[in-house]
Amino acid sequence: MGEVYRARDPRIGRDVAIKVIPASLSAHRDHLQRFEQEARATGALNHPNLLVIFDVGTHDGAPYIVSELLDGMTLREHLAAGRLPLRKTLDYAVQIAQGLAAAHDKGVVHRDLKPENVFITRDDRAKLLDFGLAKLVHPDGALSGDDATQRMPTNPGVVVGTAGYMSPEQVRGAAIDHRSDVFAFGVVLYEMLSGVQPFRRGSGVETMHAILNDDPPAIASDAAPPAVLRLLNHALEKNRERRFESMKDVAFALDSLSVSDSNLTAKVRAKKPKESAKPRELLFRRLTFRRGHVMTARFAPNGAVVYGAAWEDKPIEVFSTQPPDPESRPLGLANADLLSISATSELAVSLGRRYLGGWVTIGTLARRPFGGGAPRAVCEDVQEAEWTRDGKDLLILRRAGGLFRIELPIDNVLYQSSRWLSHVRQSPRGDRIAFMEHPVWGDDSGQLVVIDLAGQEILRSSNWSSTGGLVWTPKGDEVWLAAEDKGRGRDLIGVSMSGRERTVLSLPGRLSMHDIAPNGDVLIGFENARREAVAARIDDPQERNLTWFDWSWLAGLSPDAKSILIVEQASAVRGQNTVYLRPIDGGPAVRISEGHARGYSFTRDSKWFVINDNADHLVMLPVGAGQARSIPDSGLAVLISWQVFADGERLLVFGNEQGQPPRLFEVSIASGARRQISDVPVSWPVFLSNDDRTIAALGEDGRVLLFSVESGDMRAAAGCVPGDVPIGWSSDDRALYVHRRGRVEVLIERVDIESGERTPWHTIRPGDPAGINDIMPVCITADGQTYAYGYRRFLTDLYIVSGLA
User: Fold this and answer.
1) Cβ-contact 696, 724 below 8 angstroms
2) How confident is the model at residue 265 (pLDDT cuts 50, 70, 90)?
């Protein structure tokens, strides 16, 4: 009943979709009312799994709706190849159920749910479309006073919907409520599990007869376990009094399945054992017992386990343990982490391994015999390394020229990307390389990528909201990785070379994947992980912990020292970056929006701040009352951090053009037009002076550099040395506050950028340092009197798990 166009909104600089009813159709009262009904119903809803409506109106007699533009395909198109994998089915089902539940909460019944009206975006977000047949009702069932515009011109006895997805009460033309959507949801779930519609017959009349009288055919035993089938049958009850009472109940039941039984895929696809065979039992053997964080662990050829760990408040050190002995002994490699062990028991280690930001680490690659001796340096500023299977060469990962590079041997580039790469591992036969590629620098969300030795891509997986290590199985037929989806905790996932994904191990909490032995024993870490945010005044010895949920990224400190921005990123928000504003006095946090904030997000008057809406669109939001303001697209592929100029009309943006290293740009808030400030690649953090004339940033060599906003001219900041990290300007712009990264202690210094004089300012040291692996970021107000900082705390227990392979 309409046409949909892709369009550009020049006012706010974004692409949108416009749905239009031609004037010839809008002359028909029922068409027009249904179109208006869609606008009214959808515009009243606000949920991540529902289409967002921006505007409605009429032009030359043709009504239109302006909505967000979605990139992906409908569920119908996904089903063209047959049934979906169980894991995908459950994921989409949870999202569809949550979207319907949100609509029902607003009194909106969809009445036309089907795969054509479910859109799957490229990041696997399900969006419900086309509420054109929706009927606005109140939770108590009564229509509101404006009956003529809120009720379509249909009466009992008139069938409205799509044959095959209608509930029995719809087929009969009886009055309907939200439970009709529950039935339609059951039909869609059945189709995702089986690849066919449960009631489809040769004609519409026969199909509706089947809905009223026939039971759906039994689903194949390898398609879904009993728990899912019970849920499905409950949704498809022909008597609505026996169905789920609400979509909230359906969403809860599905979410419980996807969490507690997230290894359903493995159970379903497992071969039926022979009658004489006994199922293998999993055996868990704990290896570590101290309080702290394990960075990297590997099996040694002699059966020992070697690992790098930071226990209590001590620096990271390399240890060895021989199961079942509970004791670990140091290997004489302090301030170092393990990277790899060769087939001849030679260690590759990272000396002085440290965090650059987020999860990105570097150190000096060195090699040393297992038995002892001084390590021999091989290469500086290396992120990761692994011995080749013959133990003669090293596969390395490092950053050079603003790009992350995989090299084998050293200096021979196989693959490079402006995106952060991590967890590089070579296949058992040595012919393939697996690694993670992350869309955001330093963030652990990402995709598994497999390439051959010519650098050609063989496999790219779906995107995971959090990842923590990967290994090749001994046969090389799968890659096993620790991965999390929608904030439910990291599971152990197997990905075949055909792209098939399955759950290998699911346990409550967060797993990290370290290694796998030739006999199939797996070396994993169980992590109690939190990111915390703390703030205080220099003259107050009592710091205040302002953490809200379990992963509170400190995103900014307001210039007036009254608030901080935090971004929750883990299980409490199902892995969707969500921005909160919290008073420094400890008052409750206020949820602002889904999105991300970084750098100096506040305006100078502390009345506004800027976030990224998770789709690389910047939005300016008020601290108090006021309307959000979208900032037009600047065309930058990745936005790393941003800061508002004092005039409130421009942004300093640190970001990437497509395929290029990150650089500094000035962006117009009104138009999105951008101007590149300098050609020199720099690193985060980036800070704009109070007079808007100078930018402080980290250079590629670790020096603090100063750039002229007007000319782009660059000079080194006097008094700053490699390793200094700028955290802000003094009020008079004559000095920078800097610190040097530390695991459990950080000294803030004030550095005069002309004379080079350094003044110790304040020392940060959390009261309980165990498991803290880096203090970052650190923020400070221009007067130097109020500061805030964040840190990650990981308490790791290392285990060997037998029986998985």
Assistant:
1) no
2) very low
Question: Out of 112, 181, 491, 724, which one is annotated catalytic?
Answer: 112
How many angstroms from the chain centroid is the CA of residue 492? 17
Between the alpha carbon of residue 260 and those of residues 99, 256, 506, 508, 800, the distances in Å are 22, 6, 8, 8, 22
The residues facing 665 across adjacent strands are 653, 676
112 a catalytic residue: yes
Helices (H), 584-712: none
CATH superfamily of 353-529+796-802: YVTN repeat-like/Quinoprotein amine dehydrogenase (2.130.10.10)
Distance between CA 65 and CA 58 in Å, rounded? 9
Backbone dihedral angles phi then psi of residue 707, each to the nearest 5 degrees:
-120, 140
* CATH C-level class of 72-269: mainly alpha
What is the C-alpha separation between 600 and 608, in angstroms, rounded?
A: 11
Strand-strand pairing, 522-537 and 544-545: antiparallel
pLDDT-derived band at 309, boundaries 50, 70, 90: very high
Single-letter amino acid, residue 521? D
Residue with tokens 């290392």: 798
Q: Which CATH superfamily is domain 595-783 in?
A: TolB, C-terminal domain (2.120.10.30)
With pLDDT > 70 as the criterion, what percentage of the chain qualifies?
Answer: 88
DSSP, res 695: E
DSSP 339-397: EEE-TT-EEEEEEEEEEEETTEEEEEEEEEETT----EEEEEEEEEEEE-TTSS-EEEE
Overall average pLDDT of the 754-777 stretch: 91
Please check whether the two domains, 72-269 and 595-783, share a CATH topology: no
Burial of 417 (0-12, 13-18, 19+ CB in 10 A): middle
Asked if 423 contacts 483 with a C-beta cutoff of 8 angstroms, the reply is no
Q: Quick check: 575 and 258 in contact, CB under 8 A?
A: no
Residue among 279, 800, 266 nearest 520 (CA)? 800
pLDDT band at 379 (very low <50, low <70, confident <90, very high): very high
756: left (phi over 0), alpha (psi -120 to 50) or beta: left
Q: Where are the domains of the chain?
A: 72-269, 353-529+796-802, 595-783
The token duo for 482 is 């620790």
59 CB-near residues (< 8 Å, 6+ apart): none
pLDDT band at 350 (very low <50, low <70, confident <90, very high): very high
In residues, how long is the chain? 805
Element (H, E) at 41: helix 29-43
Burial 690-725 (b: 16+ CB within 10 A, else e): bebebbbbbebebebbbbebeebebeebebbeeebb
Cα angle for residues 704, 705, 707 (degrees, 5° grid) = 150
- pTM comes to 0.58
**pLDDT tens by residue, 135-147:** 555 433 333 333 2
**Cβ neighbours for 96, distance < 8 A, ≥ 6 positions apart:** 49, 113, 118, 126, 128, 185, 188
pLDDT at 247 over 60: yes
Q: Which of 400, 397, 418 is nearest to 408 (CA)?
A: 397
For 20-53, what is each residue's pLDDT tens digit? 877 666 666 666 666 676 676 667 677 889 888 8
Position 19: which residue type?
A: K
Spatial distance between the Cα atoms of 679 and 740, rounded to a whole number of angstroms: 26
Nearest-CA neighbor of 453 among 431, 428, 421? 431
Of 617, 614, 550, 544, the residue nearest 582 (C-alpha): 544
pLDDT digit string (tens) for 491-519? 999 999 888 888 999 887 789 999 999 99
> Looking at residue 167, what is its pLDDT?
92
Q: Provide the percentage of residues in the chain whose pLDDT is more than 90.
A: 50
| Contact between residue 580 and residue 592 where contact means Cβ atoms under 8 Å apart | yes
